[in-house]
Amino acid sequence: MGAFILRRLAFLVLVLAGMSVITFVLTHVVPGDPARLLAGQHATAEEVRSVSHLYGLDQPLPTQFWIYVGGLLHGDLGMSLTDRRPVMEDLAQFLPASMELTLAAVFLVVVVGLPIGLLAGVRRGQPIDHALRFLTVGGVSMPIFWFGIILQIVFYKQLQLLPIGGRLGILDIEPPQVTGLYLIDTLLDGDLPTFGSALVHLILPASALAAGSIAVVTRMMRASVIEVLDADHVRTARAKGLKGMIVLWRHVFRNALIPTTTVLGLQIGALLAGNVLAEVVFNWPGIGLYAVNAIRNLDYPSIMGVTLVISIIYVFVNLLVDIAYVLLDPRISYGGGRQRA
Amino acid sequence: MSNVAASGPGAEPALSTTAPEVRRKRTVLGRLLVNPLSAAGLILVVFAVFVALAAPMIASYDPITMTPDLRLAPPSFAHWMGTDDGGRDILSRVIFGTRSSLLTAVGILAMASAVGTAIGLAAGYLGGWVDEVLMRVTDMFLAFPALVLAMGMAATLGPSLFNAMLATAVVWWPWYARLVRGQALHLKHEAFVDAARVSGASAFRITVHHILRNCTTPIIVQMSLDIGYAILTLSSLSFIGLGAQPPMPEWGSMVSIGRDYFLEQWWMVTFPGLAIFVSVMAFNLLGDGLQEALSPRLRR
């Protein structure tokens, strides 16, 4: 197990190095003249030259790369061209909102996707299974941004049940920042009305974001349940007279969870990326909305900062999922350790 | 016994005596049509391709020319899906949008599969350090969440439909590289490849004539599974302003423009979004069906 984690960490270093190369190429090589971009469209040749010198853009590319990597290692992602603040500070400010939205979506995926997948697997071939298959294909085909807008039309415009967007109502006061997650910060502050408001504001964006992942996890869970239902230990459990629900919970659900965990982990990556779309639709002040505003202002350092940060989170989540997979299933060992059958 | 005979090469003479229905099931199309969901997918895909090809003939209005008098008109007999903020017929724009969506999705997959296949073949067939280097680069690209990297890349290249297509292809090729490498690793030890090598065929000839030819089925299955997601990714990039630019009719950018009006003029976002949803679903259903029909393992 230790050797496996060490190897995964070594690969992580390699991946991070690769990421820095890719983002360097994107910011320093692909745009024709990064100095002109930094200086602005209307800058004079003299101004462009001084910006070029200031940011080391007049150095040879390998030197520029080392300056860039040195900056990254110190958490320096450059200056935002929009608000002239360090990109890192901007991201630290906007990341908690994105994390809250992602975690809410993960929660929905788990509490909706797993039971539906179990139901579809147990009722395999029956009308409910066919209906769920249709719904899951629909779920993965749904554009997040469109589904979000349809939810707004239905639940805000027509039914007037839920707010259209944002993290809090206009009259609500932001809780004092502890974690940056409003649901937790409002509880810590003992402010239940604001907690309720934050919760209500989360429902639509989290649902729009989660729909596709719910579909994927449901499909995976269904397939795993079908496989486990055929296994000998389930037949034995039934043969010795255990009640259906106990067999389902103790023998089927828990074993089917193992392969589903990997898919769930991969879905967290999809949710992080999907955040960008959900945040735009629901005006959710996270790094996704920040990235799209940066795109509109051609603010390259900010765009790359977001790309890099989301990717790093994604890589770490994948690492945790791999480790969780080994811990959940004692039969799996990624070399090194002995195989326990 | 009869099952074994039916699936082996010796089954040919028996074909003439089997019922026509059984024969129908043997063709890929037949196997697709047996499953109602795959059949529905196939019909919708054929319809979408027809709409894309015949767009100028079936659209009743020009998709670009503005008619301010007809601005924001709700769906009516004259304009089935209503009109947009420029008075343009939304149905005609959705019809022309089918063209750009399908073309760009095919473009993404063509580029991604060409690059991925070349890299996968080289890695799988040559092995050794070439394989090691190529696969580590592939892993690096796979470590990024696809949409986010495509976003960063499209933003750097500058907002346009072609650049969005290019950016998406750049994040997509690693999947094909992995797939083809796996196939090549397996095929290079087959007897017919050994025979070709012994008879003096060059490495290039072996990879192209013997290995690549036998990789086409999994590549086609993968492309059919991917095309829906390519449409989805591209429309997402257009939605955030990185793909098609106005006034070009493209579904994602139409939804994006409609967002300014969606609470009163719901038709501006609903219909282009529905077009994305239905076409992606059609390709996904067809892809699932093709995978089932072409891969013996999943065949019932």
Overview of this protein structure:
The complex is a heterodimer of chains A (341) and B (300). Chain A is mainly α and 341 residues long. Helices cover 74% and strands 0% of the residues of chain A. Chain A has 13 helices and no strands. In chain A, α7 packs across α11 and α9 crosses α11. Chain A is globular and about 85 Å long. Chain A starts with a helix and ends in a 13-residue tail after the last helix. Chain B is mainly α and 300 residues long. Chain B is 73% helix and 0% strand. Chain B contains 14 helices and no strands. In chain B, α7 packs parallel to α14. The longest helix of chain B is centred in the middle third of the chain and has 37 residues. Chains A and B meet through α1, α6, α7, α11 and α12 of A and α8, α9, α12, α13 and α14 of B.
Keywords for this entry:
heterodimer; A: 341 residues; mainly alpha; 13 helices; 0% strand; globular; B: 300 residues; 14 helices; disordered N terminus
Low-confidence stretches of chain B: 1-17
Helix content of chain A: over 70%
pLDDT average of chain B, as an integer? 85
Our measurement of the CA-to-CA distance between the termini of chain A, rounded to an integer number of angstroms, reads: 16 Å
Kindly provide the radius of gyration of chain B, computed on alpha-carbon positions and rounded to a whole number of angstroms.
23 Å
Oligomer: heterodimer
Name the structural class of chain B. mainly alpha
Work out the number of β strands of chain B.
Answer: 0
Strand residue percentage of chain B: under 5%
Low-confidence runs of at least 5 consecutive residues of chain A: 336-341
Shape of chain B: elongated
Please report which band the strand proportion of chain A falls in: under 5%, 5-15%, 15-25%, 25-35%, 35-45% or over 45%: under 5%
Q: What overall form of chain A do the CA principal axes indicate?
A: globular
**Alpha-carbon distance between the termini of chain B?**
17 Å
Biggest interface, chains and residues, is: A-B, 53 and 47 residues
**How many E-type strands of chain A?**
0
As a percent range, the share of helical residues of chain B equals: over 70%
The biggest sheet of chain A amounts to: none
Q: Number of helical runs of chain B?
A: 14
Q: Please compute the radius of gyration of chain A using only Cα atoms.
A: 24 Å
